[in-house]
Design goal:
globular, 3-stranded antiparallel sheet, 4-stranded antiparallel sheet, alpha+beta
């Protein structure tokens, strides 16, 4: 029996200033699988409660349960093979962005290389994904989905993949309107210098623990 209820393929920065910032800001270091003291920012625990359990990451293949007949060793081998044949993705850099009432780091310039890596993760590993039931699909069926996004949800278990994918590293849950500017300023104040260019050089296999938090299981360098 698997020790983790679900698995996901994420981008996580290698250990360094950006990774340390993300772990501290969210209060959870997914690589070390430990809690981290958060900075003294008003209501930071509430602001980061939703994304905190996942750790600092960008989703490449959204969380999934293992399909019947598949095991973790097979998944690890498949991710390793995918990484070996896939080239890194690049963008000009990263920037702090407000996405509606959420904050995230998003790419600067052309992000086609990042989307290419994400598409490979979604499609090449899909035989490992157990097909979701109607209740699970309904949880992921957000208001206002387009016809295309609804089709992607049914086909791949998530509406924001393939041509609807947007690389982002989430830093908050939904922020009250009155706090959007202050929260933006606080995040900007704590950010380290952001990479220029930004290189998506690894993919990470992460697992969901019994407490609902995700932890890094293995990191794979892209070498295709």
């Amino acid at each position: 029996m698997s020790a983790h209820s679900r698995y996901a393929i994420y981008y996580m920065p290698r250990p360094g200033a950006l990774a340390a910032f993300g772990a501290a800001w969210l209060g959870w270091d997914a690589e070390a699988a430990r809690e981290v003291a958060q900075p003294e920012v008003e209501d930071i625990a509430a602001l980061t409660e939703a994304p905190g359990k996942y750790g600092f990451h960008a989703t490449l293949k959204p969380p999934f349960r293992l399909a019947e007949g598949r095991d973790v060793a097979q998944l690890e081998a498949a991710v390793a093979a995918l990484a070996a044949r896939t080239a890194p993705g690049r963008a000009d850099g990263l920037t702090l962005t407000r996405l509606g009432r959420f904050f995230a780091l998003t790419p600067v310039g052309c992000a086609a290389g990042l989307a290419r890596v994400a598409e490979a993760c979604v499609t090449d590993l899909d035989s490992f994904r157990a097909r979701p039931g109607s209740a699970e699909l309904e949880r992921r069926r957000k208001p206002g989905l387009t016809e295309r996004q609804e089709a992607l949800l049914r086909a791949w278990g998530y509406p924001y993949v393939l041509d609807q994918f947007r690389f982002h590293m989430t830093l908050s849950g939904k922020v009250p309107k009155a706090r959007l500017e202050p929260v933006h300023e606080q995040i900007a104040r704590h950010l380290p210098p952001l990479p220029e260019p930004f290189v998506l050089e690894d993919i990470c296999l992460n697992g969901e623990r019994e407490d609902g938090r995700f932890e890094l299981l293995r990191r794979y360098a892209l070498s295709g």
